[in-house]
């Protein structure tokens, strides 16, 4: 019996209930211990904000982006690579009759394998960057074809601000939503002041909130919104962002709205935005659904158009505000000022002028000969004229009436004539007048730079007020729409007006109107007489067409 017991105990395969349970418990513990670190590998929401906030970016995007992605818990994240460019040594074969060498065939086979691999590499998510040739700093960022989540934008909010030379961000088909767009817009002010270009193409949004990129505090100058399924509602929001009766975008220079679904109504909203906008130079509405009604509204803005009742009322209000500001800036205004203070000022001015005349008379009797007496009398008359102008009008008001610079210079010449009187009063007064004139010139210069379009010179016809058309827009692209000869006639009238404008005022520096207008691939024949007239009128204005004959001459007469 003992031998059997020992045999059964010695055999390793004998089942023992106690040992089996303990073995099973230890195995489960081992499995749990092995599985615990595997669950830590994916990103955990509770541990996300701890480590990334402690990291200080160095300005090297490749290092900072990889480190922050790892700290956020990403195990597989896009790499930062330089944007691929065509090889500069690639040259076409000089003759097609050359026989291919076997070495060339081997190279072509290896190139085919490399091109096959490069195709797969091309579709991998990457952050492509374009570098400055001198210091290798990041100039532009390209993200194409992979979804950018809000957490990735959070990483970019830490990576991008140290890039001091960043100029452009291009996001193509990255699955933006209205929520991530607001996060992206909040990221832009954190970046360098050199960032001016933003391209969001192939990112349709349900709420079409692209107009938030054109807010009044936005610094974007170039905006591309191609292929975003923008319809008339989105065009309405964009038109209101360009300008309204009380606000106007002053930073955006170019806007690309090609390959969208904008119709006549949307083109009308864009035209309304161009009525009072004086910063947009380049506009593309190519590959849309604009017909004659929308084309006529766009053409109407390019020539003198009638102000609406609300615009006329706003113009009158602005004129009143301008007048009150000029009176407040003036040193003395007897019409609306305090009578006591005005009397005291007039008495002081009168006393100073009398003292000045007395001193000049004494100087005449003591030192001056007879011939100079008339000049002194004239200087006294000049002082009296200055008193009258000071009591009635300010130097700012006089300058706002477009006085000639020669007249203003003549008024300033009278100041040195007061030098023979060695009293302190006239010198201090002359310095004050000079400072007031300089300040007024600065204020006028600032006002001319930021003039509201409603304050531009208008034309009155039959009891209606007409504002000059938008002559700031230089480039308009309406390629591949649905415009017929009816809409073409409106553009012909607008071009005929704008062609005459620079000839009448060739000496003045200012807007000159359209330099390039594209109307090809619409619903009219290219041999249409109106279209040929537009081409003939626009050809001398196109700077590209002017440069081509110079290049041809340089090629014809080589040095």
Question: Mind explaining what this structure looks like?
Answer:
This protein has 559 residues and is α/β, with parallel strands linked by helices. α10 (292-301) packs parallel to α17. Helices cover 50% and strands 9% of the residues. The protein has helices at residues 2-10, 17-40, 50-54, 61-72, 102-122, 150-159, 178-187, 232-242, 264-275, 292-301, 309-329, 339-366, 373-392, 395-400, 405-413, 424-449, 485-504, 529-538, 543-556; strands at 79-82, 126-131, 138-144, 168-172, 197-201, 222-224, 254-256, 282-284, 305-306, 459-461, 464-467, 475-477, 516-518. 20% of the residues are buried. The termini are far apart. The radius of gyration is 38 Å and the shape is globular. It is built from 19 helices and 13 strands. Strands 1-2-3-4-5-6-7-8-12-13 form a ten-stranded mixed β-sheet, with helices on one face.
Strand order of the largest sheet: 1-2-3-4-5-6-7-8-12-13
> How large, in whole angstroms, is the Cα Rg?
38 Å
How many DSSP E strands? Answer: 13
Q: Uncertain regions: pLDDT < 50 for 5+ in a row? A: 1-12, 18-26, 36-50, 92-98, 350-448, 503-508
- C-alpha geometry: globular
Number of helices: 19
């Amino acid at each position: 019996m003992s031998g059997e017991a020992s045999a059964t105990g010695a055999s390793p395969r004998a089942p023992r209930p106690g040992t089996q349970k303990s073995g099973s418990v230890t195995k489960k513990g081992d499995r749990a211990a092995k599985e615990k670190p595997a669950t830590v590998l994916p990103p955990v929401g509770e541990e996300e904000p701890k480590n990334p906030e402690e990291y200080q970016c160095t300005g090297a995007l490749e290092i900072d982006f990889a480190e922050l992605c790892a700290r956020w818990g990403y195990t597989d994240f896009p790499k930062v690579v330089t944007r691929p460019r065509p090889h500069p040594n690639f040259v076409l074969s000089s003759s097609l009759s050359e026989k291919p060498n076997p070495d060339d065939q081997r190279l072509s086979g290896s190139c085919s394998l490399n091109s096959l691999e490069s195709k797969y590499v091309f579709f991998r998510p990457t952050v492509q960057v374009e570098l400055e040739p001198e210091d290798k700093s990041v100039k532009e960022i390209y993200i194409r074809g992979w979804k950018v989540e809000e957490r990735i934008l959070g990483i970019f909010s830490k990576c991008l601000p140290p890039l001091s030379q960043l100029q452009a961000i291009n996001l193509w088909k990255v699955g933006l939503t209205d929520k991530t767009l607001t996060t992206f817009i909040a990221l832009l002010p954190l970046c360098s002041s050199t960032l001016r270009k933003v391209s969001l193409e192939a990112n349709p949004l349900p709420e079409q909130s692209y107009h938030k990129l054109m807010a009044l505090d936005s610094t974007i100058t170039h905006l591309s919104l191609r292929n975003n399924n923008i319809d008339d509602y989105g065009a309405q929001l964009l038109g209101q962002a360009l300008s309204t009766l009380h606000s106007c975008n002053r930073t955006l220079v170019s806007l690309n709205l090609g390959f969208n679904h904008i119709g006549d109504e949307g083109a009308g909203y864009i035209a309304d935005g161009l009525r009072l906008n004086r910063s947009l130079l380049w506009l593309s509405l190519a590959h849309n659904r604009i017909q004659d009604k929308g084309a006529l509204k766009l053409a109407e803005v390019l020539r003198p158009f009638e102000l609406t009742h609300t615009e006329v009322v706003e113009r009158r209000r602005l004129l009143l505000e301008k007048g009150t500001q000029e009176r407040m800036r003036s040193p003395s205004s007897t019409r609306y000022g305090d009578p006591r203070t005005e009397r005291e000022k007039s008495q002081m001015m009168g006393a100073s002028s009398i003292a000045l005349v007395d001193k000049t008379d004494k100087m005449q009797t003591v030192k001056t000969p007879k011939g100079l007496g008339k000049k002194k009398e004239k200087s006294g008359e000049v002082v009296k004229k200055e008193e009258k102008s000071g009591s009635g009008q300010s130097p700012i008001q006089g300058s706002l009436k477009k006085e000639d610079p020669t007249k203003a210079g003549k008024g300033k010449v009278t100041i040195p004539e007061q030098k023979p009187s060695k009293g302190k009063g006239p010198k201090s007064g002359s310095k004050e007048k000079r400072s007031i004139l300089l300040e007024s010139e600065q204020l006028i210069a600032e006002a001319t730079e930021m003039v509201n379009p409603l304050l531009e010179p208008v034309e009155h016809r039959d009891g209606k007020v007409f504002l000059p058309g938008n002559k700031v827009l230089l480039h308009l692209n309406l390629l591949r729409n649905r415009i017929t000869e009816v809409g073409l006639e409106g553009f012909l009238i607008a071009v005929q007006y704008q062609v005459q404008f620079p000839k009448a005022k060739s000496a003045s520096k200012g807007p000159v109107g359209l330099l390039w207008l594209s109307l090809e691939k619409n619903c009219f024949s290219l041999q249409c007489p109106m279209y040929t007239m537009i081409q003939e009128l626009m050809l001398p204005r196109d700077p590209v067409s002017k440069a081509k004959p110079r290049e041809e001459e340089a090629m014809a007469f080589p040095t």
